[in-house]
Design goal:
Structural class: alpha+beta
Strand content: 35-45%
Number of domains: 1
Radius of gyration: 13 Å
CATH superfamily: tt1808, chain A
Largest sheet: 7 strands, mixed
Number of helices: 2
Distance between the termini: 15 Å
CATH class: Alpha Beta
Shape: globular
Length: about 110
């Protein structure tokens, strides 16, 4: 749905795994989906995105959910990601964390 929306409204680009996002010298992640707005497209290199994207989407699985909801969420928050979505296919749930100042606000279950 996101890709279709961007075809109709070319506001940026979506990248899917494998796609490296370099958040610091020591923190390189490979989210399931990344959205980068046209305004921030200049950050993109041929190899990766060196800096926080506008949106990160992680699809939860039994093997990754604890890491996605803990370590990676905190990392995205510290790095300045504007929105962090988690999709739980087992529960058919989407949770959205939006940046408020320097942190994520209360997660919204959609």
């Amino acid at each position: 749905m996101l890709v279709q929306f961007l075809k109709e409204h070319p506001l940026g680009e979506v990248f899917d795994a494998p796609f490296d996002v370099v958040l610091s010298t020591y923190d390189v992640v490979e989210p399931d989906l990344v959205y980068l707005s046209n305004e921030r497209a200049s950050l993109l290199t041929e190899k990766n995105l060196p800096g926080p994207p506008d949106l990160v989407v992680e699809i939860l699985s039994p093997d990754t959910s604890r890491r996605d909801l803990g370590i990676k969420r905190d990392l995205y928050e510290r790095a300045g990601v504007l929105e962090y979505w988690t999709i739980d296919p087992d529960r058919d749930e989407l949770t959205v964390c939006r940046r408020i100042d320097d942190h994520f606000g209360v997660p919204e279950l959609l």
